[in-house]
């Protein structure tokens, strides 16, 4: 009997490790996503009044699939498709334009396809999607950049990197008034009529991008993020019943707050959620609803670029946003 119990426990742990990820291994899923949001936050600081959209999934009519777009930045004068290369080590470019990364966290040499080629490829795909939704951009309005935000990124012969690449050193030197690396299409002040046309175009562009397909996102404790697909909740039956209304067709966002009950700290948690309003972005504070569930309740989530489904305890989550 004891042999069967021990064997069963071993099989259970192996299956759990294979199918799901423990919370202490979150870095495997959060590294790239957290880098995207860190870059997005700094872009908003660099460009006052800009809009940043993270984790888009733009439909590609030619391929019949969705293409991942790390970031789209919309400023007063242009829009940029941005790919974030969170790579570390000594980076050089070979004769074919590939990036050769030596050292870094893996202490191995690896070769990466030229990221500027892939990022440029996304520009006409996004333009076609926008045009399909009634937003026609002037020629040259939408361009591309590759940002390398990892402090352990060391460029070998940085002068050979194409102008579309912003190395870590260049990234840290950018200031709010310095737009030469990320801007360059429109110079000088707008005439009144032209300024109104520009504002109207930006309004349409931002409205369209805000309703474009996106990855679901988890914000975890410690300012970590995971992009991917929300699948379901796991837990006790009464908790699942309390959370039954939290589904993407009805809810756009939820926030998790820790509370104490019956003298046991954090034994239960308060979940606030906002009913989805397809007419407006988000919901007012008066529209937030709440449920209380066990802190052991879990979110089943499939991270972007991962072959495994993960489970995250609600107590480790700050918020979750669900794409329409």
From TrEMBL:
| InterPro entries associated with the record | NERD
NERD domain span: 31-149
In terms of domain of life, where is this protein from? Answer: Eukaryota
Q: Where are the transmembrane segments?
A: none
Pfam families tied to this protein? NERD (PF08378)
Q: This protein is called what? A: NERD domain-containing protein
């Amino acid at each position: 009997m004891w042999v069967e119990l021990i064997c069963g426990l071993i099989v259970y742990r192996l299956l759990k490790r294979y199918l799901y990820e423990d919370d202490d291994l979150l870095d495997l899923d959060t590294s790239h996503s957290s880098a995207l949001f860190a870059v997005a936050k700094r872009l908003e600081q660099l460009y006052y009044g800009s809009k940043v959209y993270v984790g888009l999934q733009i439909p590609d009519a030619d391929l019949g699939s969705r293409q991942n777009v790390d970031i789209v930045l919309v400023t007063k004068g242009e829009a940029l498709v941005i790919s974030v290369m969170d790579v570390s080590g000594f980076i050089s470019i070979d004769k074919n334009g590939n990036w050769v990364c030596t050292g870094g966290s893996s202490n191995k040499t690896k070769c990466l396809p030229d990221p500027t080629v892939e990022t440029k490829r996304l520009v006409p795909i996004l333009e076609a999607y926008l045009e399909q939704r009634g937003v026609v951009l002037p020629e040259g309005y939408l361009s591309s950049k590759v940002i390398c935000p990892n402090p352990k990124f060391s460029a070998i012969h940085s002068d050979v990197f194409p102008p579309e690449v912003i190395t870590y050193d260049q990234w840290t030197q950018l200031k709010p008034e310095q737009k030469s690396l990320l801007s360059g299409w429109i110079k000088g002040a707008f005439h009144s009529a032209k300024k109104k046309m520009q504002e109207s175009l930006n309004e349409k562009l931002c409205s369209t991008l805000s309703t474009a397909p996106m990855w679901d996102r988890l914000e975890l404790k410690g300012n970590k993020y995971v992009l991917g697909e929300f699948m379901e909740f796991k837990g006790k039956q009464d908790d699942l019943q309390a959370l039954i209304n939290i589904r993407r067709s009805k809810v756009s966002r939820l926030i998790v707050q820790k509370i104490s009950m019956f003298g046991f700290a954090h034994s239960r948690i308060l979940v606030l959620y906002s009913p989805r309003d397809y007419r407006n972005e988000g919901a007012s504070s008066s529209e937030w609803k709440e449920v209380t569930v066990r802190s052991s309740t879990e979110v089943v989530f499939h991270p972007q670029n991962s072959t495994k489904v993960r489970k995250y305890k609600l107590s480790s989550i700050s918020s979750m946003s669900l794409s329409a």
